[in-house]
């Protein structure tokens, strides 16, 4: 197939890599230097109509949309209107991620377990609500904030500051919205479902590490590292299938917006069972960099089958090995990252991959161009070995001031040591 991947981060690099290794001809826009080694990079305006017209001109067989902002902008709708198969939810269905207030209300309507919460469209009401709350408490921007619009507040003062931030940074003040919800305890896990709207196949469960510093401290980021698979019990996995994924897809169909694409369930394994922290409408980043290297079957074919409403979950096959991802972030991230830092990449061995997340090439030199710069992935028979190889590879990258966490996998007792 001729496959057009839309996006230019680590997730899209992983999607391109998965498609290319199955022999497909891959195109990508806007791409990045790592993607350019596997795909033809296309220059294009990034609005929905321009991207759909690009897909038509290039006579592609499939479009795979990576970032959530493109889904919310209606890229899938624009492609579909022109007869181009596009993998991902429609603009309406992507509201499951793009509007956390609506998403929480949807979960209540359809009996999907989640935290107790209240949604506010005004700062004064939200601040008044805090007077009757206990800490820690979770404050979420209901709009898209690239995974960083969440604060776990340890004091009511911190919670109030987070609310003021949400209502001050909104481009459209009248559209600003905040969700205030109870803090849930337990292990956090990501479960991704490839779906045609009815049938679905789960990827191996994974665990991201969201904060910038070890010990789950510091501000939230888009993700600093992943281990896969996460050791979910069979009973929890069954519960997630039957009480979370299936009802969500049924609810989306019932409300006239079938969800086709990747349904990402960010879950908390609470003492009362798994509950939804939030839904995303696409592959996670950096979860994609951990999950897709384990995929043994044909991602592009699965995506096309999903678009056609013909996904056969039995054909989606993953390796029983483990993967680990270590993110190298720029100095200053998640605030104002330093751009233009030279990056020197080491050679890689089999089952080692360096995904480019925020890089650019200037005068033949690779440089940082964003917050999360590289996602260093290793696949091995055991998670401990995968972690050891990923950290060893990360330590060979020449990137002055790079930030990384040294405790990826620590929550489940994984540690970066070579197996004997």
| Helical run tally | 12
According to CATH, the homologous superfamily of the largest domain is: ATP-grasp fold, B domain
**CATH class descriptor of the largest domain:** Alpha Beta
Strand portion: 25-35%
Gyration radius, to the nearest Å? Answer: 20 Å
Name the structural class.
alpha+beta
Terminal CA distance reads 42 Å
Portion in helices: 25-40%
By CATH, the architecture of the largest domain is named 2-Layer Sandwich
Total number of distinct structural domains: 3
Largest sheet: 5 strands, parallel
E-strand count: 22
Q: Order of strands across the biggest sheet?
A: 3-2-1-4-5
| pLDDT averaged residue by residue | 95
Which runs of at least 5 residues are low in confidence (pLDDT < 50)?
none
> Within the CATH hierarchy, at the fold level, what is the topology of the largest domain?
D-amino Acid Aminotransferase, Chain A, domain 1
What global shape is seen? globular
Summarize the structure.
By secondary structure, this protein is α+β, with helices and mostly antiparallel strands.
Please describe the topology of this protein.
Layout: E1 2-7, H1 10-20, E2 25-30, E3 40-41, H2 48-57, E4 62-65, H3 68-72, H4 75-81, E5 86-87, H5 95-98, H6 100-109, E6 117-120, H7 123-130, E7 137-141, E8 150-153, H8 156-169, E9 178-182, E10 187-195, E11 200-202, E12 207-208, E13 211-213, E14 217-220, E15 225-228, H9 234-254, E16 261-270, E17 273-280, H10 287-291, H11 299-307, E18 322-329, E19 352-356, E20 359-362, E21 365-368, E22 372-380, H12 383-395
Parallel strand pairs: 1-2, 1-4, 2-3, 4-5
Antiparallel strand pairs: 6-9, 7-8, 7-9, 10-11, 10-16, 12-15, 13-14, 15-18, 16-17, 18-22, 19-22, 20-21
